[in-house]
Design goal:
Length: about 450
């Protein structure tokens, strides 16, 4: 079966002839702004593997950018969607209630580590929608308008979430953006100010956050702070628990809500169901949690979870939407959660992550271009630099590595403020043999790409 196979390139070149023809059609029919450097046209996928239209097999370490934690074509999920499709595709939840929506809201309300005792959940279609809804909820609850976000953040491509997103390459020619959004430095300890110890850096980042109240907007005008427990596009940078505790304290002292954006880090990716579970273990919780991507195994869905006392402040009609909580998506999500819990996907993520981290670290002696290895569970970033002393980012090297790896059947993707981080987001159903094979391909790709420099 494909899910147990290893990468194999059968055509003389990539893309193969069938893929090349479809890619030419893509170029004519689809805007170039939806860019893609991969010479891959998928025909089918199973587990962590995909096969293209020419019969080439690829090991996928991107997983739909965090969408496929449960893998391609998980049979139980496929069957759940088919069963639901036989009954009905859709019933707008504002018009008719369907039990799948209710059951999923109950399940996520029990799982998500948010403040309060009477949790509720509702559904939208994408991570950006979830984050935008979280901001709306925070404004409704606090009757304030200001939002604090952080450097390195990615929250989406709507007008509001483009404003919240740090990297403005995602927002070229898109202004003006909403007012009342303020940005503080995120604790990217590998790139902390020169000469600072980690202890000094923690104090520095908190003081920089507090400066917003002095220089941008008083605390009484701030509705919420939104942050990723582990930044995705920002370079797979975990938020240190010590810093999160300080942020939570500032929020509590000033009546500000804390939003955890778990669009990419949720659903066992980090070794817990949610990365915020690590916060919970340390005695802190967000007020609102947003999640998407792997929630439904590839069917579009996102969720917002908060306490009823917060959600009750939202006026009728402000939240909701036509396709939010679609019946097919809810059926998929319920089955995804069931499988993940029964098979301990969180434990598997920790095992995978330990091996990836150990292997990446062992390469440091051989490859001085490896600047940093970091992450949580199976969400690991490998940061490449021109030199370790200066820590100069090397995005060109990352691009060469990605292009070389895909020619040998391994699909990788970059991340980071400077585009110099290789992210690990392989489906958590990856086999040990596939994991070893992928590491061999990546190691060879780094070595070859360095020689090409």
């Amino acid at each position: 079966m494909l899910k147990d196979e290893l990468p194999e390139i059968k055509t003389k070149t990539l893309p193969g002839p069938k893929a090349a023809a479809i890619l030419q059609r893509r170029a004519r029919a689809v805007p170039a702004a939806i860019s893609c450097i991969y010479p891959v046209v998928i025909d089918r996928g199973e587990g962590a593997m995909l096969e293209d239209v020419d019969g080439n097999r690829f090991l996928d370490w991107v997983g739909g950018v965090g969408v496929l934690n449960i893998g391609y074509s998980r049979p139980e999920v496929v069957q759940a969607v088919k069963r639901q499709a036989d009954r009905y595709f859709h019933g707008m939840f504002n018009i008719v209630t369907h039990e799948g929506y209710v059951a999923l809201a109950e399940k996520l309300s029990a799982l998500a580590p948010v403040t309060g005792r009477s949790h509720q959940a509702y559904f939208t279609n994408s991570g950006a929608e979830a984050d935008e809804n979280a901001v709306k909820i925070a404004k409704a609850y606090t009757k304030r308008s200001g939002i604090i976000c952080f450097s390195g953040a990615f929250h989406g491509r709507t007008n509001l979430t483009m404003a919240l997103t740090s990297k403005k390459a995602y927002a070229i020619d898109m202004g003006p953006f909403p007012d009342g959004i303020y940005r503080a430095p995120y604790p990217y300890l590998y790139r902390k100010p020169t000469g600072m110890t980690d202890d000094q850096a923690y104090d520095y980042y908190i003081e920089q956050l507090k400066l917003i109240f002095e220089q941008c907007a008083p605390a009484r005008d701030i509705a919420a702070m939104i942050l990723e427990p582990l930044q995705g596009e920002g370079g797979f940078v975990p938020a240190p628990i010590r810093w999160v505790k300080a942020v939570r304290k500032i929020c509590d002292e000033n009546g500000i809500l804390l939003i955890a954006d778990e669009v990419q880090s949720g659903f066992c990716r980090t070794g817990r169901m949610f990365a915020s579970d690590y916060w919970d273990e340390a005695g802190i919780r967000p007020d609102i949690l947003t999640t998407a991507k792997s929630i439904a195994g590839g069917v579009p869905l996102s969720a917002i979870v908060a306490d009823k006392t917060i959600l009750d402040r939202v006026a009728p009609g402000v939240i909701g939407g036509t396709f939010g909580g679609n019946a097919l998506a809810c059926a998929a999500a319920l089955k995804v959660i069931e499988v993940m819990e029964q098979e301990d996907f969180a434990g598997r993520a920790r095992t995978i992550g330990e091996k990836i981290r150990r292997t990446y670290t062992s390469w440091k002696d051989r490859f001085p271009v490896i600047g940093d290895v970091r992450g949580l569970g199976a969400m690991i970033g490998l940061e490449l630099v021109t030199d370790r002393t200066g820590r100069t980012p090397d995005p060109q090297l990352v691009t060469r590595v990605i292009r070389e790896a895909v020619q040998n059947g391994l699909i990788l993707e970059s991340a980071g403020v400077y585009g110099n981080v290789i992210r690990f987001l392989a489906p958590l159903v990856i086999t040990d043999e596939q994991l070893d094979c992928g590491l061999r391909i990546l190691e060879s790709a780094i070595a070859k790409s360095i020689r090409q420099n």
